[in-house]
Structures are given as C-alpha cells and as structure tokens.
Amino acid sequence: MGWVNRISSELYNLRSILGWSLENDPEIGLRLVIALSPLWRSRDRLSEARVWVDRLLERASSASPQICAAAYWHAGLWTQMLGDHAGALIFYQQGLAIARAAGDTCNTAWTLYHLSLLAVERGEHQQALAMLEEISQLDRMAENVLLSILARIRMGVVYDSLGDTTRARLLFEESLSAGREAGDARAILRALDHLGDAAAERGDYASARSYHEEKLSLARSTGDQHEIPHALNDLARVSWRSGDYQTAHARQEEALIAARQLGGAVVQTLCLNRMVQMAALEGDLKRMDTLSRESLELASEGQLMGETADALRQLAAVAVGLGSAARAARLLGAADRIQERMRSRHSPDAQDLLARTVTATRAALSDEVYSAADAEGRALSLEGAIKFALEEF
Prior knowledge:
Layout: H1 2-8, H2 11-24, H3 26-35, H4 37-42, H5 46-58, H6 65-81, H7 85-101, H8 105-121, H9 125-137, H10 145-161, H11 165-182, H12 185-201, H13 205-222, H14 227-241, H15 245-262, H16 265-282, H17 285-301, H18 305-321, H19 325-342, H20 351-364, H21 367-379, H22 382-390
Helix pairs in contact: 2-3, 3-5, 3-6, 5-6, 6-7, 6-8, 7-8, 8-9, 8-10, 9-10, 10-11, 10-12, 11-12, 12-13, 12-14, 13-14, 14-15, 14-16, 15-16, 16-17, 16-18, 17-18, 18-19, 18-20, 19-20, 19-21, 19-22
C-alpha cells in the first residue's frame, strides 16, 4: 500500500490523464481507473471512481471486451461498497454478459465471485453457492490460483452461514494449505482470518488468537497496511470474548491508530463501531456517543450507506439509554430506511446491540408512539437523518 500513499499526491495529474483519455483513448482511461482501485478504495473516492468509469464506458465502443468487462465488475464492487446494491447488480450483470460473450474466463470468474458476495449480503445463499461452483468449473481456473482459493474460502463462509460449520472449517483449512503451497500472501491472510473467526465462534480462543496473530505478523512482514487494523480488530474481539478486557481495549486502540494512519472511512468506521460495541457492553454511554458521532461523520463523508445506518443505530442506543426513547425510534426508522434502500441485511456485528436497542425503545413507548416516531425517521432524507442524529439533545 506504500505506492498508494506516494501516488495520492499525483491525483491532480491522474485526473488530467483520465480527462485526456475521455476525448482521445477511453481504453487507456479504463485501464488506469482499474489500476487505481486501491487508491479509490483507501482514500474514500469510490464515487469519483464510479463517475470516471461511467463516463469512459460511454465512449469506449472500440475498447477490448476484456477491459470493459473488468471495468464493469470493478464499478460493481465500488458501487456495492457505497451501499447501492441495486446499482452494483446492474454493473455486475453487464460485465458478466460481456465476459461470457467474449469467452473471457478470468473476468467471468471475478464477476461471479463478486456477485456471490452481493448474494450473501442479500441472504441469497444458494445462489451464491451456485455462482461459486460455476467458478470452479470454468476452463483454466487452475491457472488463477488466488481466485480459486478465494472462491473456496467464500464457499466456506456461505456454508458457515447455513450452519454447516464442519464443511466450512474444512474449506478454510484446504484454502490455507493451498495458499501456503502457492506462496500467496493474500490467500493465506483470508484463510487465517476465517479460521480465526471460526475458532472464536466455537469457543477455542487459543486457536483463534493463534490464527489472528499469524495474520497480523504476515500483514506486517508483507507491508499489507490494509490488513493490519483488521487483524488487530479481530484480536481485540477474541480478547474481549475470552474475558481479557484490558488486552481487548489495548488492541482496539492500536487498531484505530493503524486505521487512521491508513486513511479511508471504511476501516476507520469498522474500528470505531467495534469500540462502540465494547463501550455498550460496559454501559459507557458518553464514550458510545463520542465514537458513534465520529463514525457517522466519517461514513457520511465517505458516502458509505451501510456504515451510516450502523452509526444511526448506535446513536439510537445512546438516546434510549439516556431516556430519549422517541428520538431513538426516529433514528432506528431512519437507519432501517437506508438498509431497505440497500436491499441488504443488518451487519452481523451490530445485531446484538440493535436487538437490545429495539427492545428497550419499544418497552419505553406505546406501540402508537413508537410507530409514529419510526415513521418520522423513515421520512427523513439521508442528509436530514444525519443532521438530526448529530444534534445535541
């Protein structure tokens, strides 16, 4: 990720090149905007990237189908990260059609992989499995070691969601072995991540800690700055669940520092939201409020809809905890409306806090008052909901 920091200072010149390519060579522009994906993702410029792709594709009638297919699935990924799942699906479908027609196995496989992620977020597990199975049947997939391993890991995630933890664990272990054999750090990191999570879920905290420590060590040794805060987040969660609260807080603070050094709203909001959940379990409403407000501001600046909805729900938890149940109901309504527009499910990490917040809010209000406040929240525009949430009360 070091090159991302270096090239960020050249963003003005890169935009000039992209502008030039619009008039002279859209294919060069598409190649550049795809190559800059780590920059767009780490610097909260996903909306800008999507605009460039839209404009370039409109003028890329003579561009190679392989480049167009890759541009479509990248645009789908960026759109999905912004929380526009319907828009992401359109991009993916367009890219998949182009890749299939061109006999482009590589981009067909990558598009199917990202479509499977979208399907899981929408709760469509069987569709996700079908897409992942198709990837394994494509010609020449053995040559794409990374994608083959990532698809196997994703199958494990889907089976885990369906309750088949034994099959999921086997797929994760196979993926780790394949990653080690191929010497692919990215595949190893992903496999370690899911093996650690699986171990934590079954209460084997020693194994979970070992997997996540190895992940952290590998991320540091390979200079993968993006994975470092994620690994620290996971270690904090394992420490918390095993009752080592002092270490959990230390790891979580370390994760946030690493996230801030990296930049970008996605990983920072992840760290902040984990800290909110810890503060909630400790009953520290003041800390929850401070962290949730920062998370909301980052999420709104980065145009991250899912993270915005999470922050609104966290502030609802603060509101009901401080005796302002009607305010909490409005915030819950606003968050639910955002989630419905995304056509996705609630974040798994936020489920427990959300359930407690809804229960407490409903207990404090009559059904009539709750419904009215919920409707008021749903009627707010996105900007109105954010403004309301950040108001002092």
